[in-house]
Amino acid sequence: MTMMCSAPGTLPAEALSRRASVAAGVERRPEATGNPEQPRGLQMVGATGTKRIRNDAVWRAGGAAYSGTVLTPGEVAARLQAGERMAPRPAMGPPVPDPIDAVVEVLAAGAQTPTVQSIRVSRPEGFAFRTSQAVRMVLGEYARPFSIASGPERPYLEFAARRSDSEFKRAFFGLAPRDLVRIIGPRGRFFLEEDMPGVLVAGGIGITPLRSMLQHAADVGLVTPLTLVYANHDPSEIAFRADVDALAHAVPGLRVLYTVSEADPNWHGRVGRVDTALLAEAAEGRPDAMFYTSGPPGFVERVLGAAVSLGVPTERLRLEVFRNYEEP
Predict the structure, then answer these.
(1) What is the DSSP string of 158-223?
(2) In the chain, N or C terminus with fewer CB closer than 10 Å?
């Protein structure tokens, strides 16, 4: 990845103008920022098969909460696509850090793929988070939730997004070193359960929270068996590929399985979408593994269906959904 990094010296007029406009936005508290305390938790604790089963989670929609719902995979995807959120399970492991509201500086920005941009920002003093948590990022009048793509042990924070025509995405892709960004967080409970084997399944930009898990595993020397299944439309769209390859060597128990929907002549890996056979291969040698899936709603629905068909119990399924993205 080509990254633009900040350096000392006088900023050109264009950079000064950009920094001033971003700073003006972060100093305000527009309504678009939403509630920093709102849980992002998209934990699947009562997952879904082809038959209807009882769901022990609580769904929030339109300010109302209801529980004991009975859902199929399609109903799960439809609710998530419509913006509903599944209430998080009680956190396991260390306490969930309290959220803070801070202005941070962009340290580096660059293209991961032709359509994916990543940024690295300074880490606010006292900002603690657990693997795969998120922040609410504010750029001027626009705000969006962002999974943290870096591990908790790193001295910086990283984020990534796929290009779209939204005003927020245009602002994100225009960020450069020394620009200022407002973040509110951390939030969410999509945590890695470190004492259990894991199968991590990423669809496209859904790699970001799973990368946080894997960087953490590398930084703390985790030896729990893990498999990453990473699906993309084509080889050119594999974001953080060099980093994932490096993590495969740095994490003793990690196995990485790439797959693409459309291959080019230079691709010699798997071709095809994630299915039951690929999940079975990923879970080999990982008895009683937790399954974590992250990506667009249709992708998550398909992975959940495949996992249930393999007999994975609902209490070992976790999910994070990225709305408004195409399925890889």
Answers:
(1) EEEEE--SSHHHHHHHT--TT-EEEEEEEE------TTS-EEEEEEGGGHHHHHHHHHHHHHHT--
(2) N
Average pLDDT across the chain, whole number: 78
pTM for this entry:
0.74
CA distance 43 to 36: 18
| pLDDT at 28 exceeding the cut of 70 | no
Distance between CA atoms of residues 147 and 205, nearest Å? 10
Has residue 103 got a pLDDT over 50? yes
Report the pLDDT value the prediction gives residue 49, as an integer from 0 to 100: 29
Q: What structural domains and CATH numbers belong to the chain?
A: 2-36+94-187 (2.40.30.10), 50-87+192-328 (3.40.50.80)
Report the distance separating Cα 201 and Cα 274, nearest Å: 9
- Contact between residue 135 and residue 184 where contact means Cβ atoms under 8 Å apart: yes
Q: Which two tokens stand for residue 170?
A: 């245009």
Enumerate residues 6+ apart whose C-beta is below 8 A from 21.
140
The C-alpha angle 292, 294, 299, rounded to 5 degrees, equals: 110
- The alpha-helical segments, DSSP class H, found in the chain are 13-27, 73-81, 167-173, 207-220, 241-250, 276-283, 297-309
Distance in angstroms (rounded) separating the CA atoms of residues 102 and 105: 10
Whether 67 and 215 have beta carbons less than 8 Å apart is answered as no
Other C-beta atoms closer than 10 Å to the C-beta of 288 total 10
Rounded Cα distance between 128 and 97, Å, is 6
Of 166, 145, 131, 123, the C-alpha closest to 35 is 145
Rg of the chain over CA atoms, in angstroms? 19
- What are the strands, taking DSSP E only, across 47-188? 53-54, 58-61, 64-67, 70-71, 85-86, 100-111, 116-122, 134-139, 142-147, 156-162, 180-187
Q: What is the DSSP letter of 112?
A: S
Say if CB 291 and CB 201 are below 8 A apart.
yes
